[in-house]
Specification:
The N and C termini lie far apart (37 Å). Strand 8, helix 7 and strand 9 form a beta-alpha-beta unit. Helices cover 33% and strands 22% of the residues. The strands form two sheets. Strands 1-9-8-7-6-4-5-3-2 form a nine-stranded mixed sheet, with helices on both faces. It has 281 residues and is of the alpha/beta class. Helix 1 packs across helix 8.
């Protein structure tokens, strides 16, 4: 049995009740939108999935893919999240923007796109504008971490509130740590959880605990983490193992491998985390 370490999540019993009581999903709806940066002329799209039979505006997440673009990871979490009553706006930040790791833009490039998706959700009567979180894989998780900084929210949202919760999967913490050490920005204070494997080719096995310590000592913020012993980057990507080039990986060598035990456990825990932190106050 692998060792899973988790901090501050709801009991599984609560999750079971939530999933049992919520409705199923409805077909996705494509939404076109624009970046908040007027110098970015990208044609952005996202697919909105909402829980069926919802009697009131639903909480929601913006879902941001990894460098490979939208793939099976979003689908893997879709039904559990929808069954828990959480809507999903799965954005496409790859098409027409970059091709792969070699020409992938810097993380801050995606911030005005991500906050634009948040604003887009807040326009919809089916979504509760005060209960919107963000969830991302790898690059998407890194983007999510950056949206948790007050200076990022202020730059693109003004006085408007940012995301209410942050669920990140192996978000490549090392460069984020360097930026934190050289920054005077504060966190928004909304809860953050990081899922990672000890054998991650981007160094998450060491970087995530380091980030947790920095946030506790510098910001008095308790980062929630879930560690999977032996799991790699992309442990929830149900596909054959893959070696690939990525400048952000250790020695430029990325590696992903499906780990069903870790992946299935992460479904339970991320739905519990989002259900708790996007609950009506």
């Amino acid at each position: 049995m692998k060792y899973f370490r988790c901090v501050g999540l709801l009991a599984v019993v609560f999750l079971t009740v939530v999933v049992a009581c919520a409705g199923a999903s409805s077909p996705g709806t494509t939404i076109n939108f624009s970046s908040l940066d007027k110098n970015q002329h990208y044609k952005l799209t996202g697919t909105l999935y909402v829980p069926e039979n919802s009697s009131s505006p639903s909480p929601a997440i913006v879902l941001v893919h990894g460098t490979t673009g939208i793939d099976m990871r979003g689908e893997f979490y879709r039904e559990p999240l929808l069954s828990a009553g959480i809507a999903i706006f799965e954005v496409d930040f790859k098409t027409g923007i970059y091709n792969g790791p070699s020409d992938r833009p810097k993380p801050d490039t995606f911030l005005p796109m991500t906050f634009a998706a948040l604003k887009e959700l807040r326009k919809l009567p089916s979504i509760d504008p005060n209960r919107i979180g963000i969830m991302g894989f790898s690059m998407g998780g890194h983007i999510a971490l950056r949206t948790a900084l007050e200076e990022s929210v202020k730059q693109w949202m003004g006085d408007e509130k940012g995301f209410s919760a942050f669920a990140t999967f192996y978000p490549v913490c090392k460069p984020f740590i360097k930026d934190l050490e050289n920054s005077h920005s504060k966190l928004t204070g909304a809860p953050i959880i990081v899922f990672y494997g000890t054998e991650d080719s981007y160094g998450e096995g060491k970087a995530v605990p380091e980030l947790k310590n920095i946030l506790a000592t510098k910001y008095n913020f308790q980062l929630q983490t879930v560690e999977y012993a032996g799991a790699t980057h992309g442990f929830n990507r149900n596909a054959p193992p893959m070696h690939y080039f990525d400048p952000a990986a250790i020695h430029f060598r990325g590696y992903t491998a499906w780990d069903p035990e870790a992946a299935n456990d992460s479904v339970t825990k991320v739905v519990a985390f989002l259900s708790e932190n996007l609950a009506a106050k």
